[in-house]
Amino acid sequence: MFSLITPLNKAFNPLYKHPPSSQPPSTTLPHKTSKQRAINASRRNLGYLSCGTGNPIDDCWRCDPNWETNRQKLADCAIGFGKNAIGGRDGKIYVVTDSGDDDPVNPKPGTLRHAVIQDEPLWIIFARDMTIQLKEELIMNSFKTIDGRGASVHIAGGPCITVQYVTNIIIHGLNIHDCKQGGNAMVRDSPRHYGWRTISDGDGVSIFGGSHVWVDHNSLSNCKDGLIDAIHGSTAITISNNYMTHHDKVMLLGHSDSYTQDKNMQVTIAFNHFGEGLVQRMPKETTPPLFHFHVISINTPKCRHGYFHVVNNDYTHWEMYAIGGSANPTINSQGNRFTAPNNRFSKEVTKHEDAPESEWKSWNWRSEGDLMVNGAFFIASGAGASSSYAKASSLGARPSSLVATITTNAGAHNCKKGSRC
């Protein structure tokens, strides 16, 4: 069971009674038993309540008309390297009732910022449709879910979401767009601490030293820097079911070529739709300030070091290439659909960056079961044996012929209470 907090009973919600500088109550709901978790896992493996879309995440929960009464079931539906991200599954539900962000140091109870900084696990939902224009980065504390289902929630027009040195985060069902740089300001990141933030990049979602993170079913576009960046030793991440459009620099995975701590990074990129208006970005040659990194970016994922499973995504637009990498990442591309642009010089899916062929030819990049459309082609390199991709394998790929069906509902939902989502 869980405690549903609504505007009508918020007087009973201790989170609405304590200022952000005080310690919130430690009471939480009982954790699920190992037996309950085993049942959930078995149901997931067997396609329990399958809606027949072929998308294992959606088939896990979307066909249930009562999804709104058991929101936290979503946490049991994750796949890939981020499958153990439970977010706020074992905590209370926190209802955001106020779209404001007047004070990033002392956020008002009922605001999204007040919710995400709390120390206890929380499943955060929204009382109504709202657009939240943040004054500074939204710095999340561990064990939080932001769940936009049932409302149209936009994080837009200001700095956006930062997942820095925390764990167990789920970001689901949001419209994240027009994100801008923030910084040179004090920002609170927990009930007991706030500090000075330097200039941020302006990412939609910035994962910095984070682990067990699941970014699912969001619509992202038009941010100052990346739409989703994961750097500085981040790992155990799944980026799934997102719809990405109209942006210059889409995704960066890895801090820098010289940052070897990223060698253990594992990221699953699954069931996403990389759509119209995505543009290749060129290298920045300037020396950036703290937390603002030298990057060489791409239309879609650019990988440094680490292990990356790119599975059942739909790449319908790119201008120069779809997947790039440097510093010897392992890239396992399976069951994707790559539709090349009409420009005959931009048909190649891959881009081996910052290295001569004598070096990159040993990097482990493979294409298995990918569908190449309009002359697209993938230049593989390194080993072909499956054993070489064990650390870059996180789930079974579906046939690429099903990609259109699997990704048809990518992006934020239009879920209505009392009906299938």
Automatic annotation (TrEMBL):
Protein name listed in UniProt: Pectate lyase
Cofactor note: Binds 1 Ca(2+) ion. Required for its activity.
Catalytic reaction annotation: Eliminative cleavage of (1->4)-alpha-D-galacturonan to give oligosaccharides with 4-deoxy-alpha-D-galact-4-enuronosyl groups at their non-reducing ends
Keywords: Calcium, Lyase, Metal-binding, Signal
SUPFAM superfamilies, A to Z: Pectin lyase-like
Organism: Gossypium barbadense (Sea Island cotton)
Any one Gene Ontology BP term: pectin catabolic process
Ranges where the Pectate lyase domain occurs: 129-344
Cofactor(s) annotated in UniProt: Ca(2+)
